[in-house]
Design brief:
Elements: H1 2-14, H2 16-30, H3 35-49, H4 55-67, H5 72-112, H6 119-146, H7 151-165, H8 171-196
Helix pairs in contact: 2-3, 2-5, 3-6, 4-5
């Protein structure tokens, strides 16, 4: 009987779907601070540890996930799961990502709402806030390094931040304008190269 259990466990461990689920469940369970705080942990698990995708592919998936509507962590799970195992992988990665948070929030709602005005609980959450800010800042710095920003792309990043924070321009408009601009520049470059021949 124990041999059968061992074989089943071994088979389950070799199952890519179980591996996807446990990877994203671990990320979902142990990350504080939401989607942006998850980015370095997802990258470490998926790119460095498991080598499911390369660093460039991860940056592309991250850019698409940020551009798509919805929660960043869920979007990353959907795209990575789909990249690994199609629609099934996408569903399993998403379930793994949201299940721990769902269970934890449900337990908090059931058991801890009566403690929400407790002085100790308030102080714990006040202590967590600066750490969460740091968890969000780390992926921003890492992304800036990996994006290999030059003077033009760096200026574009700063201008985008200024437009969003101070001018209150929707990120959707900025993404559309920048995407169309880069497409147009690429088109003009290709036309010039074609004309030069």
């Amino acid at each position: 009987m124990s041999e059968i259990v061992k074989l089943l466990l071994l088979r389950l461990m070799k199952n890519i779907y179980a591996d996807i689920f446990t990877c994203f469940a671990k990320i979902g369970a142990f990350t504080l601070g939401g989607g942006y705080a998850m980015i370095p942990i997802i990258e470490k698990e998926v790119v460095e540890k498991r080598k499911w995708i390369g660093e460039e592919d991860f940056m592309d998936i991250l850019a698409i996930s940020q551009s798509a509507p919805g929660i960043l962590a869920v979007n990353i799970s959907i795209f990575l799961g789909y990249r690994l195992k199609g629609v099934k992988g996408s569903i399993i990665a998403t379930l793994g990502s949201i299940m721990p948070s769902f269970v934890i929030i449900l337990l908090i709602a059931i058991f801890f709402t009566s403690y929400s005005h407790n002085e100790s609980v308030i102080k714990v959450f006040q202590g967590i806030r600066p750490a969460v800010v740091a968890l969000i800042a780390v992926p921003v710095v890492n992304m800036a390094k990996k994006a290999k920003l030059n003077i033009y792309t760096g200026a574009l990043a700063v201008a985008t931040a200024v437009a969003i924070v101070f001018l209150h321009i929707s990120p959707i408009y900025i993404l559309l304008v920048v995407g169309a601009g880069y497409f147009l520049l690429d088109f003009i470059k290709k036309r010039r190269k074609g004309g030069a021949k």
